[in-house]
Write a structure and sequence with these properties.
Blueprint lengths: L2 E5 L3 H14 L5 E7 L6 E6 L20 H4 L9 E4 L2 H12 L8 E6 L7 H4 L8 H10 L8 H4 L11 E4 L9 E5 L2 H6 L6 E3 L6 H24 L2 H9 L7 H5 L19 H11 L8 H12 L8 H5 L6 H15 L29
Parallel strand pairs: 2-4, 4-5, 5-6
Antiparallel strand pairs: 1-7, 1-8, 2-3, 6-7
Length: 366
């Protein structure tokens, strides 16, 4: 039932007008979106009910302070639906949390957009990210990779949203002049009824999207080839993860690392003094903190098939470990074994939670 609506305003102003329309007509209880928080260029995700506060909203800007999927599970019991404006990788991450009973799609109007990627933290918090925006939007209009976006963004081929109720078309569009909405669901069609816009005959997929997808596939190939060299075998993993200081920041920002109590945050992996002493005399020296490589292998084993490549883990790593590239590559290889794409379908079961009888055909007697 997909159809497109055109608004003769910039993409961001058109989207904000749509959000105001939903609030003013009491069709939603609030808006979850990126917003400015001060004159110094700071920003965060906020939940907004007062339409006047939408003047501070910057829903389409290329910033990602957190992966928003982590926040959305807190809104599951609200009485009215929340309009949520998030990136494709954040939506895919939330789908994975829904599968793990940590959220529900029923409580949201999911609005996403064809994504040009986000700036790394060093650019986003520099105080002058606005200087990069004209060149960024020019790249988006041309369907090209903007070189100053995150490494994982430049290698992401899933930049067209999956499971959104509404998609804002940005790739290949002159975003300063026009706003194109693609309505995907009955829910969105009902809520958008009466919004001033023009229905047009067009497709969301475009030559610009296909061009960008090919470019990103090439970037992903280069990224994965480099990652193979750096983490080849156990020695490679020790060299790479040996720099880890044990802060666990990567798991805290990861939307898929969802356990209420993580084994690695408990005392299960703490070394007793006697164990450290035994290691000390046996090896002649002990690295502290202990088992940092085991921690990363444990995370890979736990959620490698659900990594959405948002890049948050690399962004927060104080040791400069390319965690996102490693997890993205390993996750894709694992997911391919099960023909599984994280966040593709809310009804698609997570591979680790199910098994098929034919998987056991070589066990036991014939």
């Amino acid at each position: 039932m997909d159809y497109l609506l055109r608004v003769e305003k910039s993409a961001e102003h058109g989207l904000i007008d749509f959000l105001k329309f939903l609030l003013e007509n009491d069709r939603i209880g609030g808006v979850f979106t990126l917003r400015k928080t001060g004159a110094d260029g700071a920003f965060d995700y906020g939940l907004i009910h007062d339409t006047a506060l939408l003047e501070d909203a910057i829903p389409l800007h290329p910033f990602m302070p957190v992966n928003a999927a982590q926040d959305l599970s807190h809104f599951a019991s609200m009485k009215k639906p929340i309009a949520v404006v998030i990136r494709p990788c954040e939506l895919r991450a939330f789908i994975e949390l829904v599968k793990r009973s940590q959220g529900s799609m029923d409580h949201f109007l999911m609005i996403s957009y064809t994504c040009g990627g986000v700036f790394p933290f060093d650019v986003a918090v520099s105080g002058e990210p606005e200087k990069e925006l004209p060149d960024y939007w020019e790249s988006v209009a041309r369907g090209q990779i903007f070189p100053k976006t995150r490494e994982t963004c430049r290698a992401c081929e899933h930049f067209v949203p999956m499971n959104a109720d509404v998609t804002v078309s940005l790739i290949g569009e002159t975003v300063n002049e026009v706003c194109i909405f693609c309505i995907h669901t009955e829910k969105a069609m009902h809520l958008a009824e009466g919004f001033e816009s023009k229905r047009i005959e067009a497709e969301l997929e475009s030559p610009a999207i296909e061009t960008l997808r090919r470019e990103r596939q090439e970037e992903k190939k280069k990224l994965f080839e480099n990652t193979v060299i750096r983490v080849n075998g156990l020695d490679g993993m020790i060299d790479m993860f040996g720099k880890c200081i044990g802060c666990h920041g990567c798991s805290r920002v990861c939307p898929i690392c969802h356990c209420i109590l993580c084994d690695f945050e408990s005392h299960l992996f703490d070394y007793e003094p006697s164990m450290i002493e035994d290691e000390l005399y046996r090896k002649g020296g002990v690295r502290l903190p202990t088992d940092t490589v085991l921690y990363h292998i444990g995370r890979l084993n736990h959620m490698s098939f659900s990594c959405v490549g948002c890049g948050m883990c690399t962004e927060v790593c104080p040791a400069g470990i390319p965690v996102a590239a490693i997890f993205m590559r390993t996750g894709e290889e694992t997911a391919q074994l099960f023909d599984y794409l994280p966040g593709r379908d809310v009804e698609e079961e997570v591979p680790v939670t199910v098994y098929k009888e034919e998987e056991l055909s070589t066990i036991g007697e014939d």
